From TrEMBL:
CDD domains: OMP_decarboxylase_like (cd04725). It comes from Ascodesmis nigricans. It catalyses: orotidine 5'-phosphate + H(+) = UMP + CO2. This is Orotidine 5'-phosphate decarboxylase. Keywords: Decarboxylase, Lyase, Pyrimidine biosynthesis.
Amino acid sequence: MSPSTDTYAQRASTHPTPLGRKLLTIMSRKKTNLCVSLDTPSPVEILSLLADIGPYICLAKTHIDAIPFTAFSSFEDVHQFTASLEALAKEHDFLLFEDRKFADIGNTVKAQYGSGIYKIADWSHITNAHSVPGDGIIAGLREVAEGVEGGLENRGLLLLAEMSSKGTLAKGAYRDTTVEMARGEKAKGWVMGFIAQGAVETREGEDWIVMTPGVNLGVKGDALGQQYNTPEKVVLGGSDIIIVGRGIVAAADPVKEAVRYRDAGWKAYQKRAGREVDE
Ligand code: BMP
């Protein structure tokens, strides 16, 4: 499992999923492989952080169900919030990733993704799913994505192949079986990559976008099992996108930290590519 030395720009024209091509194009255009994880309970703060950090990221990750519902005064407010996320994404040229981690049978995730309070499929370009239920989860979510405006041109799925937390079962053989699942018919043009800690098995003609959470330049972990690595370590190990939450969001100066992580991630990517890649 050796990390790819192809550039984001090269991969942007050949990636097998439309949304993967879109994301890699943004990364090479903006010179950033940083995804910010907006783990803060205030929708106002999320929007204001994004307005400031937007220029330095390729992707904004949310946990919309972690925002207290009391922060919204009505369902219309929730819709207003997701519309604002979409507007900021357009303005600053990044994509949205709702980190929902679907984990049920196809029929149930269809309803969870397409309806419920948050209607994730309506606004989030990317979402993710555990492979534990089997590949019906990929097919169920796909049916919903195909039905939104632009269909799979505008929606992509990541599978969780590995997790960053201590004691996780998602590693080794589980990771490899998850990658195998992403080769199925229903995954084609839809599963764009994985949440993983580094490179995954990639065969001729395949190109998986690997996104890695558990990235921090200051600390090694938290009190609840999170484990951190540096941007350099994960990118040299084959990660394409670094996901940073508290390292940016809980910092005294989030913009300064976003720039620092963006620079560290890009430098590591150039090192991996073996040259001063400018795109
Ligand atoms: P932080 O950088 O503050 O530890 O945040 C990491 C983010 O990535 C959280 O939103 C968490 O839910 C998510 N995440 C993770 O930490 N490890 C995983 O394996 C998968 C995740 O989605």
